[in-house]
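Q: what sequence does this backbone want?
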């Protein structure tokens, strides 16, 4: 099979699209024929070696940990899926990834693909959807009627977080550039704040939850946006617990694991028309290096998707 792999850490040009062995499956695994995968920042952070101490991958490594495809074969213990089923997943990041024509995934990490969207659209959802859910609902405890601010509302995680928060009954404010404000409103945001306008940025106050997808100075500024008892949740760097305690606010940090239950809930929301994928770029598998370079700019809208196989 063809796969986009790295044999050493480095720039995008270390990615090689080459022949690789068909993955072997264990008794609890499913072999998925991939139709599409998507690119996430964690992919190029792993490629650059930034996470090498945390995730000791053997090389060569197939990149990518989002997929939508068709079940090709199931392990001896698998009863929930059968060949021909359409599935999607954010599989275990410690295993070989999804930039390939086939990938082995634990059955417990798979969910049925949303019925109303394409494989390309479905492949864009798993990591960002699980991230948004874990941040807003599991960690921050989002409930209907709360006021939520989501940073980078046009980004991969932000675009799903805006829709998820709205579907759960929150009043949603999002940050975005002026050029992307209309797009973010179309996703359901009640208000859009231009992050380049200091006055508008400073005016966001008395919020129940701020979802930080950027870190650094943006995270620092987010504390003042929260009301007493409000919750700052981040996916970029752990907020300082000392500052949270001093201000009478709460904080949390999210680094996700696979979650088929969340993906089943997301599929229900997608098929009900409450969440729609936002695709910002589409590439062939042999252009994976270009897709990584685009992702590393940090300026893409929605998700970048790779075509890995035929529907």
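A:
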């Amino acid at each position: 099979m063809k796969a986009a792999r790295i044999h050493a850490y480095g720039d995008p040009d270390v990615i090689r699209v080459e022949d690789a062995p068909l993955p072997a499956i264990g008794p609890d695994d499913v072999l998925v024929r991939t139709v599409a995968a998507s690119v996430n920042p964690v992919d190029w952070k792993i490629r650059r070696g930034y996470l090498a101490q945390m995730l000791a991958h053997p090389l060569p490594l197939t990149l990518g940990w989002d997929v939508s495809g068709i079940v090709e074969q199931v392990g001896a213990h698998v009863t929930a899926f059968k060949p021909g089923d359409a599935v999607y997943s954010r599989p275990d990041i410690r295993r070989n990834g999804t930039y390939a024509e086939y990938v082995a995934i634990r059955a417990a990490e798979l969910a049925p693909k949303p019925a109303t969207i394409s494989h390309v659209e479905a492949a864009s959802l798993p990591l960002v959807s699980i991230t948004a859910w874990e941040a807003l609902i599991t960690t921050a405890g989002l409930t209907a009627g709360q006021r939520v601010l989501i940073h980078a509302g046009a980004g991969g995680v932000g675009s799903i977080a805006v829709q998820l928060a709205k579907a759960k009954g929150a009043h949603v404010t999002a940050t975005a550039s002026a050029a992307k404000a209309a797009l973010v409103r179309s996703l359901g945001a009640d208000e859009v704040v231009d992050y380049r306008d200091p006055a508008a940025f400073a005016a966001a106050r008395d919020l129940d939850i701020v979802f930080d997808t950027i870190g650094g100075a943006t995270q620092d500024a987010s504390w003042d946006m929260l009301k007493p008892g409000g919750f700052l949740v981040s996916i970029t760097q752990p907020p300082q617990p000392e500052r949270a305690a001093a201000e009478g606010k709460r904080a949390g940090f999210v680094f996700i694991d696979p979650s088929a239950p969340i993906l089943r809930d997301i599929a229900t929301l997608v098929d009900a028309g409450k969440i729609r994928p936002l695709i910002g770029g589409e590439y062939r598998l042999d252009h994976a290096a270009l897709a990584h370079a685009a992702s590393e700019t940090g300026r893409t809208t929605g998700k970048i998707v790779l075509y890995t196989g035929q529907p």
